[in-house]
Amino acid sequence: MKTVNVGVFGTSWWADTMYLPPLDNHPGAKVAAVCGRNPATTAAFAATWNVPASYTDAAAMFDGEDLDAVVIATANNSHHELAIAALKRGLHVLCEKPMALNVEQATEMYDAAETAGVITMMPFTYHWMPSNQWVKQLITNGYIGRPLHINARYYTDFGFDDAYSWRFDREIAGSGIIGDLGSHWIHLARWLLDDTETSISALTSNFVDRGSRPDGTVYDQTEDSVAMTIRYASGAYGMLQTSAVCWEGTPFGQTHHYEVHGDKGTLYATCDWDTVQKVEGLRRGDNAGRQELPIPDEIWNGVRRDTVHNTYRDVFRTTSSMTRQWIDAIIDGNQSGPGFEEGLAVQRVLDAAVESAASGGSAVSV
To answer: SS3 breakdown of the chain: % helix, strand, coil, rounded to 5?
Structure first.
């Protein structure tokens, strides 16, 4: 089997949790180098994962290592520069979402990837979770008939922390919850509906006044809550709400809920990020109430079902999902999973949502 030499940009808990484990577990992947901002932190990260080289300068890592691919798990304002540098060298790229700060940057990244002919991946993580895979299969097989609308809510509570976070700094993040959480739901809705957005209206709020930057400079604080109404090409529409200021009282402080209505029935998906991850359904004309539709064993694919966290860990560390799927695709030479084309499509919606919110919620074409 071909070995894919991977360089990783970013040494955060997210890189440690989401990228190093699946790369370490894949027989066809080798993490050759890691690059971070802090020399001591980066060296410690490399030592933890037995990575032979660590850098604090991106150009030095590009020039000093024989890489085949890179993972970009850094702040949003660095995605464009790092991706373009990698693509000019013909490297395969997995880039964290949102793809870029704006659609102009995302377009450049997509065009460069097309020119280079490489394999890309956008890690919209919830795409691979069993409950969502099951809903997608049910819709594809006609359970609800023609989709009419989706109502999706993504509730978290981390936004109640009023300390400075780059995720709420527009210069670094591009947008707040619109991009951080909203990108997940925008992708999920367009994937489930198999549809394309034509317009969006968005309302946002800053409910929490956040602390200053570490250097004391002022900055433009982004939204911590957004409600989006999206019209799709088929005529269907979506109502997508993502918020970081929702107290759900759950161990992880996060819950997901959505319903997809069609002309023949309705599907309901619930995940409490503790022990509940279920799908229910109801066909039109059935008045007995919605019934649970158990997720088939083949979709669980051997992952643990006791807690959502264990399911999440196993999906990305032991199955051919996201990072491991990207490595498989590089070895096979075929694009697989949501790549830069999907990242660009979602970025167009994000930009339109930001524009709509700035105008007070007016409809903006996508």
So the answer is: 40, 25, 35
